[in-house]
Amino acid sequence: MHTVSGGEVAGILVAVFWAILVSFLAVALARLAQTLRATTKLVADVTDQAVPLLADASTAVRSAQTQIERVDAIASDVQEVTSNASALSTTVASTFGGPLVKVAAFGYGVRRALGGRKEDAPEGTRRNVIVGRTVPGARRDKRTRGKKD
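Structure tokens predicted for DUF948 domain-containing protein:
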């Protein structure tokens, strides 16, 4: 019989160890390949779904930009109309305001001059105009009484 030497036993152990190591590496590589295939499929599916979504998002952004441009145009038109209305208001006020006040004052003066003063009206009912407001005759008389004394 043949006796097995220590070197041969060591060689067999190393060969078995390498066989086990290669088997584990083969299993790990097979699982890694499976994971890579699943990842590739997932990326392809995401790409297939993302491209239409990006196109829709791009369309929505373009539409929003168009709407913003319209709103900006409307806002500038409103601003222009507002400034025109303000200028028109100022022009109307300066053109008609002064003359209308003068015509009203003239009309009031003419009525007072033509109407005269009624003699039968009691003294206490007369009113005077002082800076845009009326003061009853009784109050006016109280102020002037002190000056007469």
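The chain has a mean pLDDT of 81.
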